[in-house]
Design a protein that fits this description.
306 residues; D-Maltodextrin-Binding Protein, domain 2; 9-stranded mixed β-sheet; two-stranded antiparallel ribbon; 10 helices; DNA-binding; transcription; DNA-binding transcriptional regulator, LysR family
């Protein structure tokens, strides 16, 4: 029995426009013009004999009919993509997405060694600045990702905890050669903030019980952990770093620890990938390698507070 379906290209345009709430962004994703998206939507509206979008000022909103259509349609396109992936050429390349600081501080060197040890498992790394770490395996071209998260992931994902995030102050190596700082020196120090909302310093001060004794200052603001660490290493103040990601520089004397107390942030770094991915064996090989690298890293001897 033949299936009675509206044109697939029109359904695809609707799904993209509904997901983005924008004809313009849908057109960019599909590499067609905005007027083509509009025509495809009109085709569907004529087919279903109902409106799918409403404009309220400059905003685009789904109608009740469109909201009823979208979930099943999205699931259908996801199923089509999974079915197509089975026959897609397997070029032995794992496409990995990871945060910028993790890439520079830890991951890049490990992946170089992984490639040498596993010449049949090439890893193509995309480093991305992410205010909130996330990946969309349905619409982004990645096979796996490393994310900073609380571990709450979709049921259709596999995940493994690589390491916990422990926040610790860092400074120029020469500034801590005489040992830990006094409270007065910590209070007087220039605070460097690796996040615009200053959440890392706030978390550390609250967890250590120093929030009343060491005020949270404005200081220099950065939009990534790496910039704060680099500024601290060059003597511009004290930043908050991640214990694992600064471990090699601290152990080598390239970075100092003015107050040897690390605080668990509540988040951890996880490797994630879609459940049932066709490259399961190579993904598990990469997972095992990264876990072994974490276990082998010597962390600075500091107090840890949860």
């Amino acid at each position: 029995m033949s299936r009675r379906l509206p044109p697939l290209y029109a359904l695809r345009a609707f799904e993209a426009a509904a997901r983005h709430a924008s004809f313009t962004r849908a057109a960019e994703e599909l590499a067609i013009t905005q007027s083509a998206v509009s025509r495809h939507i009109r085709t569907l509206e004529e087919y279903f004999a109902c409106r799918l979008f409403e404009r309220r000022g400059r905003s685009l909103h789904l109608t009740d009919s469109a909201r009823a259509l979208l979930p099943g349609l999205s699931e259908g396109f996801d199923a089509l993509e999974r079915a197509s992936a089975v026959l897609r050429a397997d070029d032995e390349v794992l496409r990995l997405k990871a945060p910028s600081t993790l890439t520079m501080r830890w991951l890049l060197a490990r992946l170089s060694h992984f490639r040498l040890a596993n010449p049949d498992s090439e890893v193509q790394l995309t480093s991305a600045w992410m205010d909130v770490d996330k990946v969309d395996f349905r619409h982004e071209p990645f096979d796996c990702a490393v994310l900073l998260s609380d571990g709450q992931f979709p049921d259709e994902w596999e995940s493994v905890l690589l390491f916990e995030e422990w926040l610790i102050p860092v400074c120029a190596a020469g500034d801590s050669e005489a040992g830990p700082w006094s409270l007065a020196r910590l209070r007087a120090a220039e605070q460097l903030h690796p996040t615009p909302d200053r959440r890392d310093w706030r978390r550390w001060l609250q967890a250590t019980g120093l929030i009343e004794q060491v005020p949270l200052k404005s200081g220099q603001l950065f939009d990534m952990l790496e910039l704060g660490i680099v500024a601290a290493a060059r003597g511009y103040g004290v930043s908050i770093g991640d214990l694992l990601m600064v471990a090699e520089d601290v152990n080598a004397g390239r970075l100092g620890v003015p107050w040897p107390t690390a605080v668990f942030s509540g988040d951890s770094y996880y490797m994630v990938w879609p459940r049932g991915h066709r490259a399961q064996t190579r993904l598990q090989r990469l997972r095992d390698y990264l876990l072994a690298e974490v276990a082998a890293l010597a962390l600075p001897g500091v107090e840890r507070l949860r």
